[in-house]
Amino acid sequence: MNRNAASRYTLYGVLFGLGFPLVSTLGDVLLHGLPLTLANILEVQSRTPLHWVVDTAPFFLGLFAYLAGQRQDQVTRLTKELQERLREREQALVRLRSAQVELEQRVTERTEEVAQASERMRRRAAQLEISAEVARAVASVRDLETLLPQVARLISARFGFYHVGIFLLDEAGEYAVLQAANSEGGQRMLARGHKLRVGQVGIVGYVTGADQPRLALDVGKDAAYFDNPDLPQTRSEMAVPLKVQERVIGALDVQSRQAAAFGEEDIALLALLADQVAIAIENARSFQQQVTLIEANRQLLEQARRAAEQQRALAEENRRLLERSETAVQELQELARRLTGEAWARLTSEQGGEILVEAAQPDVELTPGLARGRASANPSAISHPIVLRGEVIGTVTLEDADPERRWSEHETAVLENLAERLALTLDNARLFDDAQQRLAELTIVNTISQIVAAQQDLQTLVTQVGDRILQTFGVRNGFIALYDKQSHMIEIPYFMEGNQPVRLAPVPLGRGLTSVVIQTRQPLLINDNARERAAELGALIIGEAPRSFLGVPILVGDEVIGVISVQSLTREGLFGESGVRLLTTIAANVGIGIQNVRLFADAQRQAQREAQINLITRKLRGSQTVESILETAARELGRALAGRVGQVAIEARPRASPGVTPPSPADGNGPGGNGGRQS
Hints:
Blueprint: H1 2-31, H2 38-47, H3 49-55, H4 57-140, H5 144-159, E1 163-169, E2 175-181, H6 184-191, E3 195-197, H7 202-210, E4 214-216, E5 236-244, E6 247-256, H8 264-350, H9 368-371, E7 382-388, E8 391-398, H10 409-454, H11 458-473, E9 477-484, E10 489-497, E11 500-501, E12 507-508, H12 513-520, E13 524-526, H13 530-536, E14 548-556, E15 559-568, H14 577-622, H15 626-640
Antiparallel strand pairs: 1-2, 1-6, 2-3, 4-5, 5-6, 7-8, 9-10, 9-15, 10-11, 10-12, 13-14, 14-15
Helix pairs in contact: 1-2, 1-3, 1-4, 4-5, 4-8, 5-8, 10-11, 10-14, 11-14, 14-15
């Protein structure tokens, strides 16, 4: 086909090329007026060289046409090849689409098969799981009242049945009695003792009578279905018998809200579960019977054991009473020891840390170590601790002038007995001193309470109380400060320096020790290094620093209204815990007194205002004319308010007409404007 196309293009080119020499030759013959003969034509061809060139046209046009035919053949061949390949590709695409459709169909079918297999495996796994869980429950629970509700809830939760009921036959075998259920309707049925006659009523009655499973895919079409008002949503129901050794003991009943919700696999699974539940029920009954027998034997043994137990209980009670009494004695001893140690520690701290008493014969000089209350280097010294209620409170030491002196056992025993009696005697003396101190404190507090109760003037009260406090503590410096929470100002109505009263102006709450007591609302005790202690507290001391400082807040409820302070400019360590306790008690009484005085003063001022108002009212009522009333009012207001001139003015204001706005105080004509007068 390629040769035919090239030949055809060559033939067309040669024929077209022959036209050029033929036309040129004939034209030249005719141009010269020669006859149209072969000889003339040849003559013209031989005589004109241009015709030689024109005569080559067929050759070149044929050649060009042949080459063009070859090119066309190639294009045609390529076009055919492309068309063929396109057809092959379309056929391949058709085959591929067909294979894809076939593959999709196979995948869909395989997916459905896998889904069905997975669903079967899931249901089978669920069946195995529920079977295992029921088996575990059966193995672990022996009480039917616990086992049956647990199985009902388990089956309902795993399979989505809205009602699961477990029935057991009564002793006569006439009724199947509901024993457990998971639904609300089932709970109501349990409450009223729901039961169905065997072989006659409902699917459960049929199952327990016929000893066969029963499946109702549509309960409305099943003649054996019992229409239960407590379970109105039931659309399908399935029940299987509970059997033990071919003997029916009850039924397992499940119900669903969906029609045709059960299949053959569900019947097989429910039958398996029913067998497990039946075995569990029988085991539980056997176990209960054994438990009953064991309980009877246990009661007999218990009666025999009880008498011995009572004897042991009495012995144990006696032992516990003895232990408690011993424990109580130990606790009391420990408490006495602790209180004794604290009391003597407090006493020695108030005396500077220790109490040292030294005595020697006139011709004997104490060794330096013994004189300082420490162990002596003299080998003749003998010491014994002074022990009171298990707590060491001191030491008694004997020393002989002869360093070679050795103490006999008798002398050592005498020292020990002396130390024991000395401990008791010292404790009695301490208790007596404590009682005396408490009595003195109560006397002081009582005296100050009498001052507080008798005085209604604040300045007199703080002066008498302050003098009494300084006298009690034996100091010459102290003060009573009152704090105003609203203005944050501290007023000092009583300030004593060197037994001389000093007047001080009110000061703002700042960084002094008094401000520290007010801000912390806690007592402040400084017995040495006052400036250093103040710096630790963030406070400043202006002027001479006290050697000893004690300040306590005056509290009324939870509010600080002042501070009481005693100070010494000459002695350190002057105040102790007893002083803090005493001054705190005094401050509490003073706070109540100050509050009462202020309330009394407020009441007096209120009464005075009421009396002034009543007096002015009575005088106004005695006046008859407007002028006399105004004159009396002005005069009495001036007297009451200590004014030199009193004025009362009445100003007539025009009544407002419709559509006219009365003048306002801002216009300057009202009582508050420039046009009015005020008293």
